[in-house]
Specification:
The structure is a homodimer of 357-residue chains. Chain A is of the alpha+beta class and 357 residues long. Chain A contains 12 helices and 11 strands. Chain A is elongated and about 90 Å long. Chain A binds a DNA duplex (30 and 30 nucleotides) through helix 3.
Amino acid sequence: MALDDRKKKILQAVIEDYINTAEPVGSRSISKRSELNLSAATIRNEMGDLEEMGLLVQPHTSAGRVPSAQGYRLYVNDMMMKYEITANEMESMRLAMQNKINELDKIICDIASAFAKLTNLPVIGALPTAESGVVSNIKLVKCDEMTIMVIISDRSGIIKNKVLRLDYSISDEELLRLNNILNENLTGLTKNEIGFGNIMEVQNALGGNGDVFHSVLELVHSAVSEIDTKQIFVEGLSNIFRFPEYSDVDKIKVIFNALENKENLGKIVGTMQNLNSVKVLIGDEIPVEELKENSVILAPYRVSSTLTGIIGIIGPARMDYSKVISILEYFSGQMSTELAHNFGKELLITEGEENNG
Amino acid sequence: MALDDRKKKILQAVIEDYINTAEPVGSRSISKRSELNLSAATIRNEMGDLEEMGLLVQPHTSAGRVPSAQGYRLYVNDMMMKYEITANEMESMRLAMQNKINELDKIICDIASAFAKLTNLPVIGALPTAESGVVSNIKLVKCDEMTIMVIISDRSGIIKNKVLRLDYSISDEELLRLNNILNENLTGLTKNEIGFGNIMEVQNALGGNGDVFHSVLELVHSAVSEIDTKQIFVEGLSNIFRFPEYSDVDKIKVIFNALENKENLGKIVGTMQNLNSVKVLIGDEIPVEELKENSVILAPYRVSSTLTGIIGIIGPARMDYSKVISILEYFSGQMSTELAHNFGKELLITEGEENNG
DNA sequence: GTTAGCACTCACTCGTGTTGAGTGCTAATC
DNA sequence: GATTAGCACTCAACACGAGTGAGTGCTAAC
């Protein structure tokens, strides 16, 4: 059966109606609302065809029609009207980006929060990570007599640090020596290349008193291994309470449990291979069993040439794809220029925080 | 009316029954279950008295009785049996404390998570903060030509750091000078004493090119102001799905929204004045309107002589006070010795993390 | 003071009837 | 041949009422 123009228009009308109302759409309401000027009976025949084609579904015999995942997919790919972002929406995104605190992770979280407000959907994403992960510099700094901080920079500018309180005092000379040996052995290597083997090498290079530095080396190792680990975040999770599809405790429970699991989030964010365009996952396309009744929309963002992250939303398959995609596209496009413009090179990033007793 | 021994026993039986079943408790079940050997009619009379005294409440005329907040309070203060922690429970707490990663914040979160599992309740708390907050040392470290890290230590050992990427290169001499001036002006002051006034003083002391360092100084200021800010956490929030009192989406919504708000959590944690013993908040005693149907149990923990934190649980007023209090007391008592024992002075604390593009 | 007995209350459950939005099919109309 | 009006049919949702059972309070007997 061919999907002619009239069928397309009816499908579109059904989907848009359903997105707004969350109620199965009947032939009469389409007949009245649309500019097709067809009777309900005709619409009914066409809807029957659309169902046969797998684009619509009937929850039960005497109910209206609901779009199938396939229907949504067709809508997203071919039929959707472009949503024009309003001045208000632009303004709130601009405000979020213009955060005066100037810390990248916080800006991202603020933007995510603004997203959640604009779209009324939970926002998920990954903080910016470097593509390379090549260690460019290791620095050991003495905070006080028995406390040292390890600072590791990678070539893209990511900096990680960890604090260690020792039970012995380390001399400036020893620290300098350790510093040099670490840099000699580890600089230029990627995270994957640095394993316990290298750490042992350093320990051997240190000679007799290598043991003493064991805890320092362990620390360096753990800091290195975290350098390009994706940090995943969720914002505005409570937005799911807005949707009638989650008016049931059991369903809320399922989605909360699913989204509480970082592994699941990693799987979802991990579907983003091509870091150039917005990606829409509908139903079965979501790699987490419990979330297959939802849709996910992901967008990449680029803070610098080497520093990229992912942001997106998750919600019921019935969602305002057009609006969400536009907002994500806008963000994806504006991110680098906007941030570069606002912060220039004075881009201050994340705060670290150490308690130490 | 006097609360004689028999009334006490009946009240206790009602409360314990209700804690287990979440169903209003009838006279007949008390008559059968308890060792009082009284008929249902007698129990009925006594329960009527207990209701008159405000210790029990009847949801509706023909229902059994439910403890009132006042009833719970009496139970907690006077009547509760001490719960003996099982070997299993001790073991899981010990395991959480023996975390090999050796980072204090992570250990606290792990313990919180273990708590959540043991008690089947959401856990809230504050990460350790220092009581003094006196700045003992400020250090500016050059990560690369245009990136510096500010490291601020306080007298109790808390270390905070922030990273700044400059749009100009700073010389080692300038950095040293800035370092010295900062330490001269700010060391020994508490967080409250350091305001923008001091920062301006430093800027003046720097002379003509003070402007150039403005962003560095802003950064120092923000790091200082965070040095004794309480970081509040929630673990195992999804435990509330277990309770029949939250089988309704609206109620879940309310508690989620209330607990999502850090300000509310701050208020709750802030009720903990005396840092020596477990505190129980029942019903109206909770300083957040939306949570007044719940109970909160808080305990202090002490990592070192100056470093203290708070951990606790929140849940429906119907909860196993005895068990929760025991577990929190155990934790509160074991924390310092256990941590001191396991980590000695090699107590490594929190990791920081900076991206920087 | 305690208890047995009884009338009463009230949430809850379950079956039934009604309603209304929706369908599919058929026959008439354009 | 496409469109539409009409009609019988379906089925979730809602309201209503009877029945059930766990509970109560009160009273009179023990």
